[in-house]
Amino acid sequence: MPANREKPGRAGKRATAPGSSSTPNIVEMKNAIYARCAKQPAETIFSQSDILEMKIIPKNNLQLLLECTQRLTREGLFRLMTRRGRAVWKVVKREEAAKYKTLSPEEALVYSHIEASEREGIWTRTLQSKSNLHMTVMNRCLKTLESKNYVKQIKSAKFPSRKTYMLVGLQPSEDVTGGPFYTDGVLDEEFVHQMSYWAERYILRRSWYHPPLSGSGRMKSSHRHKNLTKKEAEDLRSAEFQNKQPGRERTKSMLPMPPGFTKYPTAAEITDAINASGLSGVAMKEAEMKQLLDILCWDGKVERVGNGGGYRAIRQVLSDDPMALENGLTEAPCGRCPVAYLCKDGGPVNASTCEYFQDWLEI
């Protein structure tokens, strides 16, 4: 009796080779998915639907998608994460993935937690809690990672006694370093003093008007011996405010700015000026400058004006004897008069016609 013959249909199916074009190539799909994802920004997170929309997986086969993502995860090229209860993936550079191949499972676990902390770093106690490793094992892993120049220990300005680790290629955030006012986690008091003093002088030069006086401290002869009318005195004062730069320190005499003056320096202007001066080795930010200005306000050296937008210096009289500051000049309007240098007998401004002086006498 003749041997059993295979049916043509079955023979045709059995003849299909496993490596033929009809069999999906997992390696090619995996590499194509990684190449497409690697072109996106480093912080991009990919969901299952994001990968399927790339049209690399034929017929959106979920089983093939699972195989590709599992291989990429085992090779360290994908990092499996969870978002809203769903599995998502993040691309890992090939250079970073190669590091994991040289590490033991415990070292890889410690490295992954340090890597996840990014620029904030991670405290050793937090690292032990997340890794669930014995302290001896964790310290040994940290020592190995440091010897391979994978991680480094940093000093936190907020918690200087804590041992904090982060990746070697990253720079600590300002929350960790404390910003430009800290050096190696320690407050640089000399730097803070220099910056505060510079800011105070900058505000002072733009908060008071310096009348054009001669070296003797008196008004120029062209105005001193000329009998000015009241209108001429007002015009002269207005012209000096318009033509002269407020704050130009020619003498120690300072007069307050006219009412409604709105050109007091803002935090942004002070920040730009101090960066242009080259006083600081690092570029100051406006938020950091506001911290210094807050200190100057608390110390009573400057004050906010114009709904907090500008800053004005406060002119103070310093003395070891508080009683020495109490005198008639400091209480009378003459000591704060913006046109005191024009005041004289028979002049456009004098004590007999001064409306402020008369109001003060009636108090």
- Poorly predicted ranges: 1-22, 215-225, 244-251
End-to-end distance, in Å?
138 Å
Radius of gyration: 38 Å
Which structural class matches the secondary elements? alpha+beta
Report on this structure.
With 363 residues, the chain is an alpha+beta fold. The protein contains 16 helices and twelve strands. The protein has helices spanning 8-14, 26-38, 48-52, 62-74, 94-101, 105-117, 124-131, 135-147, 174-177, 189-205, 221-224, 230-243, 267-277, 286-298, 328-331, 355-361; strands at 45-46, 78-83, 86-91, 122-123, 151-154, 164-167, 182-183, 186-187, 208-209, 255-256, 302-305, 310-313. It has a three-stranded antiparallel sheet. A three-stranded antiparallel sheet has the order 4-6-5. Strands 7-8 form a two-stranded antiparallel ribbon. Strand 7 (182-183) and strand 8 (186-187) form a beta hairpin. The N and C termini lie far apart (138 Å).
